[in-house]
Amino acid sequence: MALRFEPILAEGIAQVSYFICDESAGCAAVIDPRPDADIYLQKAQQYGVPITHIFETHIHADFMSGARELETRCKGSAKIFVSVEGDAAYNFAHEPVREGDEFEFSQVKIRAKHTPGHTPEHLSYLLSDKDEGEPWGIMTGDSLFVDSIGRPDLLGDEKTDELTQDLYNTMRKFFCKLGDEVIVYPCHAAGSACGPDIGDRMNTTIGYEKKHNPFMQIDTYEQFKKAIQDSAPPVPTHYPKMKKLNVEGPETFGHTPHVRSLSVNEFEEEMKNKDTIIIDTRDMLAFGGGHIEGALNIGQRPILSVWAGWLIDTNAPILLVLPEDKDLERVVTLLWRTGYTNFKGYLAGNMRTWQESGKPIKKLPQLSVHELSQNKGQYQPLDVRKNKEWQNGNIPDATHIFLGELSNKISRLDKGQNLAVYCASGYRASIAASFLQIKGFKNVHSIPGSFKAWKAADLPIESKTEN
């Protein structure tokens, strides 16, 4: 029977888990599962095998581990296998894995290799045929990516130098010595902040990375240290919280977290809690046309997971406004992936019921790029894109504050100014503009189409380095 080895991409968080089985062995393994675990059970059912092994390459910081959720749904057939290298400890039932431990799935052998640097306990898993010693593949977790490597700074400044040295040794003494033919299966694709500038492809080879990955070409530690520190993106605010949650062991549900349907009056009652966050997941133009005062607009794209992580405390009580009621499960799943389970309910019938009940509606003015250009003296452009996007060109005279850092740098903005907020296409601009509204900014506008529309209209572009 054929070996089944399938990557499973969770868009938004750009996380890749793996399903592996040999049907003749009558068992299957999942590596680095996400919490919405139905997809693994569906594959097990498709191939007629039980899931018996759930592996974690390391303690994840960017998403909520689905290991315990999957174990619960397997109803006793599966165990969780986690690294105890680097003195790692966990507050949930698990099987310890150490350097050199081996697991067989019919003709496939999986061998654990300690690859510290991204985290102290990090393991990679070598894949080989049972009767041959040389590996044909390796699941690298967050240690080696396409065109990149895992960042060593997520445990704080006091651990960064030690982990950077470990990461350098992992690259030079292990990965660089593997055969060029070995296929690399990482835990993240492009878009993740777990490494700098991760490439677009889902997998790669050791040979390709030796030729093209800058971090595998650096010989000296000091050069390596400078390169990894200079290229590290900002640390998302939810990362430290996710790491603690994944050590403790996330709550399990056995299904997608349940969220109550609320009438307008029930929704208003829940709004009285000052800690409650209203997330409006509609399109930016719908939100701009009318929304509940105090709502944060994070549209229901897959990247919702990440921006919620940046801007909302994982323990906050959450109320949802949906495009349509049928979108509930999708939105809840995206939030669940970054640790959100404290749902107080969603507005039944969405904004239609709110409007028909005669409740107050707040608007977020939308400003076209043509209006901004023609009245440029009346508005202060605010660019909320990443640093590299900003450095590649911006609207003239714009102020730059990356969206993820807006909360910490909001004092740089004048509440009396007419702010025109833009990003690449408008999605992040609407998040930022709604956030500023919540913080008391009265004269804030969002720019649909944003910088893409500005360029398409052939309007002037300014280039400069980050301030």
UniProtKB/TrEMBL annotation:
SMART domains documented for this protein: Lactamase_B (SM00849), RHOD (SM00450)
Superkingdom of this protein's organism: Bacteria
Keyword Metal-binding in annotation: yes
SUPFAM superfamilies for the chain: Metallo-hydrolase/oxidoreductase (SSF56281), Rhodanese/Cell cycle control phosphatase (SSF52821)
Record's keyword terms, sorted: Metal-binding
Span of domain Rhodanese: 272-363, 375-463
Keyword Magnesium set for record: no
UniProt name for this protein: Rhodanese-like domain-containing protein
Organism: Autumnicola psychrophila
Taxonomy of the source species: Bacteria, Pseudomonadati, Bacteroidota, Flavobacteriia, Flavobacteriales
